[in-house]
Structure formats: structure tokens, C-alpha cells
């Protein structure tokens, strides 16, 4: 198994992406760094103790570029070449902290969709009181149809089951109320589809349920999902900052801080997105992991591990088989 890593993607690339790849290699994952060879070697220096394979590229897709146009124009970019490696069998998965739009465009053009999936979705894991909650779509599709939410629910269920190890995960539809009659046109039409999907659908859930641990998978369109994701990140950062200010306010608080330091460090670890690595782009015919733009080496390392787990458990094949079974059932029902 080889994991292709876009060495040029991210706010802190190539330094953090290269160091994250090196840490993953030290943990036993075989990594291929894709990007400008000279810049990669400059970051590695004498630390390339695992002799990481490097695939040189002459181009980089910047965050501000129009994704589809950039993917077509820059064929020798680190994103396009990484997808090409996966398509041709030179790598089993692809990890990038670069432009999400470009990663999605390159994956769709280079790998295609899983049969039965109309649109891929980004599945982000949010911290909760009982582990993590899978939120999808977290930003790949700002406009969705009811059948897209149905497919997101199925893919999220399988991801939570196979990657997070949750037995029969609980799936909820993000809404403004728990009653079946609540919501807009999209959620009202998606509700009965999810109810008949053959997954553990528990009905509508509200925003507060995302972090309570009462639900394992939350389904919504990408516009809502991305707002929720960014709001959650902002809230976590603000709370940590306020806590730090209050704990340093006087000598008594500082004494209490010293005693509570281990617990405070654990709380910080639990809400740090770096601990969850990257978010899989579910629905494309290959393992693609999208990382936060400001990913550190720790985040990149953990994203590589998520990619390796997805390959090992056959996540793409599981989604494909599941969708094929459901499509056959649908045909049988229509024939009857």
C-alpha cells in the first residue's frame, strides 16, 4: 500500500506536509511525496531516513484558482499527478491539504464516481461527548437534491461503521426540529427516503445534537455542513482562548491551572481537528482524503493513517457493493 501525498498543498506546505509524511512513514506507512523535488528535498534534509519516494511535478494549483479550469490546464500539478498515481495503481490513496475544489475536480475527472452515487460528499468528524460525529456533506455540494442526502446517509453509515468502528451507527438528518413535519422542502423530501434506506435512521436531529454523542452520523447539504463545520471550529478556538485568559487572570487561577493542566491538555486534544486527520471525499471511485488548509504535520500524519485504514477495510468497494444492492432492489420493486 502506498499513499500519495500532495506535498505542495496547504498553508504550511511543503514543510508541514513533508514532515507529516515522514512521521507516517516512521509509523510504517509507505508514502509517495508528489511535488517540486528540490523543495521537498530541502525540507527533508538529512531526515529522509525512510527514503521517501518523490514524484516530481513542475506545477502547483493555488487556492484562488478556478478548480476545474486549473485541473485541466495544470496537468503536471501535484494534485493532478497524485490522482493519476491512484488511477494507474502507483498509489492506493491520495491525501491533500490543497484546494478542496481542485481535489474534488481532479478526483471526479481522474477516478470517476462510484456507481449509484450522483455527487461525492466530504465526511468530517466532529468531536462529541462520546467520541466523534460524522458530518456530511461538509462542503462539496452547496445545492443538493433529496436523493443526494439519501446517498450521503448511506455513505456516512458505512464510513462510521468501517473506519470509526461503530456498530450499527445512528444516522440523523440535520433540521430545525425533531418532528418529521419540520424543515424546508429538501429535508421534508429527504426524510422518507432515509427512513426507507435500510440504515439505522433515527429521524431529525438539531444542531446541539452534533456534539452530544446522541447521533453518530449527521446528514445535510454542503452549504449548511460547511457553515456548521467552520462555526464549530471557531467556537472551539474562542472557548480555548477565553479559558486561557481566565486561568491566567490572577495567582489563584494560575495555581488551579497547574493542578488542572493534564485535564486541560486532554480537552484541547479532543477538540483539535489535527487529531482527526482529514476528511474522506466519499463517492469517488478511489480513496481521497481532504485535509484542512492549515494542517500541521500531526494533521497530515493522521490523514495518511485515515487513508491507509480506508484502503485496508475496502471502504470504496463496500460503498459500491451497498449501492449496487440497493439499485438492484429498486429495480426488483419497480418490476413487481
Task: Give the tags.
seven-stranded mixed β-sheet, 336 residues, Isopropylmalate Dehydrogenase, globular, alpha/beta
Write the layout of secondary structure elements.
Elements: E1 2-6, H1 15-26, E2 30-35, H2 37-44, E3 53-56, H3 67-73, H4 78-88, E4 93-96, H5 100-110, E5 121-122, E6 124-128, E7 131-136, H6 146-162, E8 171-174, H7 185-195, E9 201-205, E10 217-219, H8 222-247, H9 251-271, E11 279-282, E12 287-290, H10 297-312, H11 315-335
Parallel strand pairs: 1-2, 1-4, 2-3, 4-12, 7-10, 8-9, 8-10
Antiparallel strand pairs: 5-11, 6-7, 11-12
Helix pairs in contact: 1-10, 3-5, 4-5, 6-7, 6-11, 8-9
Quick take:
The chain is of the alpha/beta class and 336 residues long. It has helices at residues 15-26, 37-44, 67-73, 78-88, 100-110, 146-162, 185-195, 222-247, 251-271, 297-312, 315-335; strands at 2-6, 30-35, 53-56, 93-96, 121-122, 124-128, 131-136, 171-174, 201-205, 217-219, 279-282, 287-290.
Cα end-to-end separation: 44 Å
Overall helicity:
40-55%
The fraction of residues assigned to DSSP E strands is 15-25%
Poorly predicted parts: 331-336
Shape: globular
Helices and strands: which structural class?
A: alpha/beta
Using DSSP, what is the number of strands?
Answer: 12
Reported CATH architecture of the largest domain: 3-Layer(aba) Sandwich
CATH homolog superfamily of the largest domain: Isopropylmalate Dehydrogenase
Overall mean confidence score, pLDDT: 89
Q: Strand order, main sheet: write it out.
A: 3-2-1-4-12-11-5
Number of helices: 11
The overall number of domains is: 2
What series of H and E elements makes up the topology?
EHEHEHHEHEEEHEHEEHHEEHH
| CATH class placement of the largest domain | Alpha Beta
Largest sheet: 7 strands, mixed
CATH third-level topology of the largest domain: Isopropylmalate Dehydrogenase
| CA gyration radius, whole angstroms | 21 Å
Amino acid at each position: 500500500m502506498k499513499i500519495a501525498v500532495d506535498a505542495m498543498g496547504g498553508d504550511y506546505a511543503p514543510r508541514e506536509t513533508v514532515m507529516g509524511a515522514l512521521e507516517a512513514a516512521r509509523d510504517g506507512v509507505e508514502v509517495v511525496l508528489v511535488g517540486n523535488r528540490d523543495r521537498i528535498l530541502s525540507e527533508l534534509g538529512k531526515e529522509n531516513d525512510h527514503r521517501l519516494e518523490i514524484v516530481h511535478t513542475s506545477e502547483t494549483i493555488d487556492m484562488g484558482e478556478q478548480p476545474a479550469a486549473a485541473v485541466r490546464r495544470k496537468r503536471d500539478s501535484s494534485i493532478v499527478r497524485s490522482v493519476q498515481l491512484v488511477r494507474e495503481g502507483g498509489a492506493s490513496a491520495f491525501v491533500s491539504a490543497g484546494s478542496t475544489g481542485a481535489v474534488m475536480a481532479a478526483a471526479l475527472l481522474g477516478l470517476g464516481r462510484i456507481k449509484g452515487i450522483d455527487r461525492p460528499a466530504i465526511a468530517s468528524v466532529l468531536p462529541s461527548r462520546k467520541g466523534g460525529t460524522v458530518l456530511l456533506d461538509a462542503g462539496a455540494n452547496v445545492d443538493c437534491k433529496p436523493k443526494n442526502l439519501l446517498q450521503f446517509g448511506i455513505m456516512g453509515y458505512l464510513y462510521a461503521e468501517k473506519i470509526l468502528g461503530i456498530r450499527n451507527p445512528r444516522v440523523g438528518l440535520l433540521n430545525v426540529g425533531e418532528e418529521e413535519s419540520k424543515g424546508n422542502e429538501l429535508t421534508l423530501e429527504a426524510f422518507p427516503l432515509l427512513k426507507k434506506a435500510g440504515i439505522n435512521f433515527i429521524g431529525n436531529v438539531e444542531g446541539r445534537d452534533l456534539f452530544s454523542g446522541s447521533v453518530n452520523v449527521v446528514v445535510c447539504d454542503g452549504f449548511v455542513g460547511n457553515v456548521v463545520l467552520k462555526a464549530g471550529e471557531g467556537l472551539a478556538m474562542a472557548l480555548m482562548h477565553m479559558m486561557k485568559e481566565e486561568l491566567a487572570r490572577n495567582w489563584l487561577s494560575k495555581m488551579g491551572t497547574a493542578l488542572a493542566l493534564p485535564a486541560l491538555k486532554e480537552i484541547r486534544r479532543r477538540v483539535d481537528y489535527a487529531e482527526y486527520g482529514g476528511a474522506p471525499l466519499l463517492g469517488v471511485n478511489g480513496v481521497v482524503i481532504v485535509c484542512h488548509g492549515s494542517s500541521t504535520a500531526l494533521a497530515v500524519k493522521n490523514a495518511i493513517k485515515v487513508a491507509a485504514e480506508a484502503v485496508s477495510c475496502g471502504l470504496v468497494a463496500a460503498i459500491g457493493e451497498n449501492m449496487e444492492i440497493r439499485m438492484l432492489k429498486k429495480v426488483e420493486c419497480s418490476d413487481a
